[in-house]
Every structure is written in structure tokens, then in C-alpha cells.
């Protein structure tokens, strides 16, 4: 009898232990796969789901319908390399000292007009000491993969070539695929055959490798960054059926119509690629366990898309240069068909991904928006920061438009500038003349009504916070003397100005 009692007691204890373990296991969220779709030069208003009147983007629209569309999503910079460096590290470009595009060799800007300031020397490589999304997620048990455009090292063996010392493999990516796919970068001097069969696109080896990766079984959760070269120039397409389709649908009265036709076909090719990747993920059976994030690295190119209703374009800090499409989808976690007007910026993604993976990233400038995405908490007050101490364009500056407009389809002169957004107010500071502009984005999304004189206290407060932040992180500044651009920040940064 005693043996029976002891046996029953042992069984009871074992049952309780198993129940506790199972309960703890149920309470511990499973690490999601993370698929990050980073595209190039896509304007905020380019997509159907963001209101474009004639662009056909059914696959990206489908992604938005399955999750959350953020209407105040931002890139960390108005230019490729700087934005990507910030996204990878979770830090502002001001803190990183990586504010422009990488080059073939070290040097400084040479502009074809005299300029009042000298920009900082070019940053060529993302320092290996910086910890990327891949390195942080790798530490949390993730398999990490990178496909496509890196643009964070000095060009190696050709434009955009990966460095053997500072490429993705040296920054935590276990799988790394360098391939232009079917983008015109790969055409060189030989244009591919025209395609005139409705619904047919050129095969793209880069996209296929992304599809193959997400389709295969994984023993670990994965983080895959699919970095598309679309819709970056050169804007060309072999799909005659698409150009014919848009030639018939785009209004004859629109400005730059021929370029709009080609660009629309180019954009729909990107949408097709996104659809292929999403279909591969669906077919793998892993969609429910995968957070998918879609984002552009900066605003649209002003010679191919208008960026309206936003002012400005790629290369400057008006909304057209930095507000971008940002979509997040995760079945059962993010409410389908939802939208959010909370400001979210690219350097928020690292802490967000790390939190969802079960870790914490405290040494970054971004804030996790995991609670916002899953609907468990509203975002608190915060400030977003941009810093662009350069002139643009580097060639043809003298011929560029002197002012920055809305939907004007022209390259304009960008001068060294920084910006801060706090709540619905945004302030831009122009380094040449220590001048500021203040806008209420809630009522003036096109940034047409400068409130500096009507709200001087808010303008002064934001200016002091912006300059104080730049000084605190040791931001590199455009300065008056060519010999002093490696010196500490300029006198403009004294916060008693």
C-alpha cells in the first residue's frame, strides 16, 4: 500500500512539474521569423495603398491589407548609404558620422559653384565596431541572410561592389548573396530582349534566391533582408506591354509624361518581385510565424516621381525626401487592414526586431515599436532627428533649381541642413545662415506655411533641442574653412544662439 501511495505521490509531483513547464513554455513567445523588404527610392505616395491614382501595385497593396500601414513612416536620411547605415545600427546618421553615400575613394565634395561651407569628408565604410541588426539577432539564435544592395562600403571591383573587409558577411550576415538580378545595373551595354506578352516579366536571379531561401525549412528563426535595387535609376524596362498599358492610362496632361510611363512600368516590376517573395513565403507554410516589414530607404527621385503632396524629394529633408512607405504584416499579431499615424523611423527597426526576438537594445537611438504594431500600447512622445551636412547635386549644382518645391519634377539645390520632428511640429535648420523653418505637419503636410514668426517660442525650443542633440553626439558639421572640417562642431552648435 505504501508503494502505491508513494507512486501516486510521485506521479502527482511529476504532473505538476510538467504542467508548470508547459505553462511557462506557453507564456514564452516563440521567436518570429523576420523578413525585411527594403526598396530603393520609392516615394511615399507611389503605391496604390498610399493613394496613387494610376500606379498598379497589387502585391504591396495586399501586404498592406494584411497588416498595418504607417502613414508617418520615415527614412533616417534622404540618401541611400546614410539611411541604410542608420537602419542597420539603430543609430542616427549624426551619431554615426555616416550622412552621405559611400564613394570609390576618400575625399571631400567638389561642387561646381562656390559654396559658403565645406561638407565633412566622405565616410567610406560602416565601421566594423558598429553592431548591426544581423549581429544582434545572431546573438539571439537567428540565422541571418542578406540579398542585394549593401551600399555600406567603399565600392569594390565596380560600382556597389561588396568589400571583402566591410561587406555583409563581416557585419553578421551568415548567408549573403551579391546579385543585381534583372535591374538595369546588370544590363551594362546590352539591353535585354523586349517582352510583349501581357503579365510576363524578366526572370530575376536575385528575387529567385530570396524565394528559395524563405521557401526552405529552417532549424532556427531567420532574419532575411531582401534589399532591392528597384526603383533606383536607371529607370528602364523591357516590358513593352507595361509601357503600352500605362501609355493608355496616364493622363495626357501630366508633367513629364514619358518618364512617368516608364517609371510606372518599372515600379510595377518591383511590385511583381514583392509578390513572388510573399507567395514563396506563403507556400512554405511559415507566413503565420513571420513578421514582414516593407520600407523605402528614402524619398523618390525628382526626375521620375513627383513626391506630391509632399514638398521636396530624395536628397533633402523636406517630407518628400524622408517620409516613405512603411508596412508591417504578421498574421494574428498585427491587425489586418489597420493604419497608424504614429511617427516611426528606420532606426526604430533594430530595437523593434530585437525586442520581438526576446532581447533588448539599449545603446541605440531608436525606440522599439513592437507594442504599436501589435496594438498592445500607444506610442509615447518622442523626437525624430535628421542630419545632412552636404550639398547636392554634386555635379550640375549650378544648373539645379534654386528653390525646393512640390511636385515640380526638377532636381533642386540642397544645402547643409538638419531637422527635428516633435509631435506634429517639424523644424529644419539651415547651416549656411543659421536659419530655421517651422511647420505643423498636422495641417500643412506640404510644408508651405513657415510658422517661425507666428510661433517663435516653439521654433526656438526645437532649434535648441536639435542643436543640443547634434552637439551631444558629436555630429560632423559643414564648416566655413576647408582646413577645419575635422575639428569639433562649429559655433552654430552653441545652444545659447
Describe the structure.
- The chain is an alpha/beta fold and about 500 residues long.
- It has 2 domains: about 30-380, Alkaline Phosphatase, subunit A (3-Layer(aba) Sandwich), CATH 3.40.720; about 385-495, Arylsulfatase, C-terminal domain, CATH 3.30.1120.
- The chain is built from 12 helices and 14 strands.
- It has an 8-stranded mixed β-sheet, sandwiched between helices. Strands 11-12-13-14 form a 4-stranded antiparallel β-sheet, covered by helices on one side. Strands 3-10 form a two-stranded parallel sheet.
- A hairpin with a 4-residue loop joins β13 (about 425-430) and β14.
- α2 (about 60-65) packs across α8 (about 255-285) and α7 packs across α8 (about 255-285).
- The longest helix is centred in the middle third of the chain and has 28 residues, at about 255-285.
- It is globular and about 55 Å long.
- Mean pLDDT is about 90; it is low at about 5-30 and about 485-495.
Summarize the structure.
This protein is of the alpha/beta class and 497 residues long. The protein has helices at 2-27, 58-65, 80-89, 93-96, 133-139, 205-215, 240-249, 257-284, 319-322, 349-356, 370-374, 456-472; strands at 33-39, 68-70, 73-74, 143-148, 175-177, 222-227, 290-296, 326-329, 338-340, 344-345, 383-388, 417-422, 425-430, 435-440.
Amino acid at each position: 500500500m505504501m508503494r502505491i501511495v508513494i507512486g501516486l505521490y510521485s506521479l502527482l509531483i511529476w504532473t505538476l512539474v510538467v504542467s508548470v513547464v508547459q505553462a511557462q513554455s506557453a507564456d514564452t513567445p516563440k521567436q518570429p521569423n523576420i523578413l525585411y523588404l527594403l526598396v530603393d527610392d520609392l516615394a511615399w505616395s507611389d503605391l496604390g495603398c498610399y493613394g496613387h491614382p494610376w500606379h498598379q501595385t497589387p502585391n504591396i497593396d495586399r501586404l498592406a491589407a494584411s497588416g498595418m500601414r504607417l502613414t508617418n513612416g520615415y527614412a533616417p536620411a534622404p540618401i541611400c548609404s546614410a539611411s541604410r547605415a542608420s537602419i542597420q545600427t539603430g543609430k542616427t546618421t549624426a551619431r554615426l558620422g555616416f550622412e552621405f553615400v559611400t564613394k570609390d575613394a576618400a575625399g571631400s565634395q567638389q561642387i561646381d559653384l562656390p559654396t559658403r561651407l565645406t561638407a565633412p569628408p566622405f565616410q567610406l565604410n560602416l565601421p566594423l565596431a558598429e553592431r548591426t541588426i544581423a549581429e544582434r539577432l545572431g546573438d539571439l539564435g537567428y540565422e541571418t541572410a542578406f540579398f542585394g544592395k549593401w551600399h555600406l562600403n567603399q565600392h569594390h571591383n565596380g560600382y556597389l561592389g561588396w568589400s571583402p573587409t566591410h561587406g555583409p558577411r563581416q557585419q553578421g550576415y551568415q548567408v549573403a548573396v551579391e546579385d543585381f538580378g534583372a535591374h538595369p545595373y546588370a544590363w551594362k551595354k546590352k539591353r535585354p530582349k523586349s517582352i510583349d506578352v501581357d503579365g510576363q516579366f524578366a526572370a530575376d536571379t536575385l528575387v529567385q534566391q530570396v524565394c528559395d531561401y524563405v521557401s526552405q525549412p529552417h532549424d532556427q528563426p531567420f532574419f532575411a533582408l531582401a534589399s532591392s535595387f528597384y526603383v533606383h535609376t536607371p529607370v528602364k524596362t523591357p516590358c513593352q506591354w507595361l509601357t503600352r498599358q500605362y501609355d493608355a492610362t496616364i493622363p495626357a496632361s501630366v508633367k513629364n509624361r514619358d518618364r512617368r510611363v516608364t517609371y510606372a512600368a518599372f515600379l510595377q516590376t518591383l511590385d511583381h518581385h514583392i509578390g513572388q517573395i510573399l507567395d514563396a513565403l506563403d507556400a512554405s507554410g511559415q507566413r503565420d510565424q513571420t513578421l514582414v516589414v516593407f520600407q523605402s530607404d528614402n524619398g523618390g527621385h525628382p526626375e521620375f516621381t513627383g513626391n506630391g503632396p509632399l514638398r521636396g524629394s530624395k536628397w533633402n529633408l523636406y517630407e518628400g525626401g524622408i517620409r516613405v512607405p512603411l508596412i508591417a504584416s504578421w498574421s494574428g499579431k498585427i491587425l489586418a487592414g489597420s493604419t497608424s499615424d504614429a511617427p516611426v523611423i528606420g532606426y526604430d527597426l533594430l530595437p523593434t526586431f530585437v525586442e520581438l526576438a526576446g532581447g533588448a537594445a539599449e545603446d541605440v537611438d531608436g525606440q522599439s515599436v513592437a507594442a504599436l504594431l501589435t496594438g498592445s500600447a500607444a506610442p509615447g512622445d518622442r523626437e525624430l532627428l535628421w542630419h545632412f551636412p552636404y550639398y547636392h547635386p554634386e555635379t550640375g549644382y549650378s544648373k539645379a533649381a534654386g528653390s525646393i518645391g512640390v511636385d515640380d519634377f526638377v532636381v533642386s539645390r540642397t544645402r547643409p541642413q538638419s531637422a527635428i520632428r516633435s509631435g506634429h511640429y517639424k523644424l529644419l535648420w539651415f547651416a549656411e545662415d543659421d536659419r530655421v523653418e517651422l511647420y505643423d505637419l498636422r495641417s500643412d503636410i506640404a510644408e508651405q506655411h513657415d510658422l517661425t514668426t507666428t510661433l517663435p517660442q516653439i521654433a526656438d525650443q526645437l532649434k535648441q533641442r536639435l542643436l543640443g542633440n547634434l552637439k551631444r553626439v558629436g555630429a560632423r558639421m559643414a564648416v566655413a574653412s576647408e582646413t577645419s572640417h575635422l575639428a569639433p562642431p562649429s559655433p552654430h552648435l552653441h545652444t545659447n544662439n
